[in-house]
Design a protein that fits this description.
The protein has helices at residues 2-23, 48-76, 82-85. The protein has 110 residues and is an all-alpha fold.
């Protein structure tokens, strides 16, 4: 259950990280053009420092969640489903016959 929850959190963090990166101002504005002109909500500098801090925090949470998921999946990989289904059977290999032909060579005909 914990890995399922962390996987859902990972997907949410990925979506939030992509949105935070695309909202930042760059040479090609990206999705920042759709944010409107009211930038005074974030202060005099605009949303740049706020979005940079938000991107850093979301990125840090993404890395921590990725490492946690990797550790949890790595620790459970020592167990296998096949270990539970494999049955031991005593199968005897057939023995070789004692009467094998000694001269089984043929000469090619011309």
């Amino acid at each position: 259950m914990t890995t399922s929850f962390l996987l859902i959190v990972q997907i949410i963090l990925v979506v939030m990280l992509v949105i935070a990166v695309l909202l930042q101002k760059s040479s090609s504005i990206g999705l920042g053009a759709y944010s409107g002109s009211n930038e005074s909500v974030f202060g005099a500098k605009g949303p740049n420092s706020f979005l940079a801090k938000t991107t850093f925090i979301i990125g840090f949470l993404f890395v921590v969640n990725t490492i946690t998921l990797g550790y949890m999946y790595g620790s459970t990989s020592t167990k296998s489903v096949v270990d539970n289904i494999v049955e031991t059977k005593n199968i005897v290999a057939p023995s070789t016959s004692a009467t094998t032909p000694a001269n089984n060579e043929t000469t090619p005909s011309k």
